[in-house]
Amino acid sequence: MFQYAVEALDVSNVRPLGPLNLATPLIVAICAGVVLAIALIVATVLLSRKRAVTPDAASPVEEKEEKDVWIERIGNIAADYDASTITREEAFARLATVARRFASSYSEEHVDSYTLVDLNRKQPRHDAQNWISLRQTIAALYPPEFADGKHHPIAQDVSVSQACEWVRNLIERWR
What we know:
The chain is mainly alpha-helical. It has a domain at about 65-175. It has helices spanning about 1-10, 25-50, 65-80, 90-105, 115-120, 130-145, 155, 160-175. It starts with a helix and ends with a helix. Keywords: Membrane, Transmembrane, Transmembrane helix.
């Protein structure tokens, strides 16, 4: 048994191979790496550019409609709430949406999805009083919409009718 193991390790007939020709595969690998690096650089440059926002790509903003149309929407929200087709929270959310869309339409700033923090950070380009009114209206709508009535009793006391007046005031005073 030991004799077979020694025969298996017989290396007397082993001869080294000639030099391997790796020049062609190495050149192909280097070229592929360079092409990949260039493609990544181009993709990074193209994807990191700021794109101009076209009206179609922007958030959906209502056309500038007469203020009466916006006030009618507020009346519709109040009517839906009074008819119990929407909840109090839904009414506040819809009123906040009307306020933001109105401001987006009349200011040409896309504030549809701005939170109160975003509105506070925003430096108005036009009439500052409009932005102050918008911030105050959204700030007034936040507690009734989100606050727990047990921990924030004032929020519980705000009626949908009062909130409708706040948004109506915003629209009527906008210059």
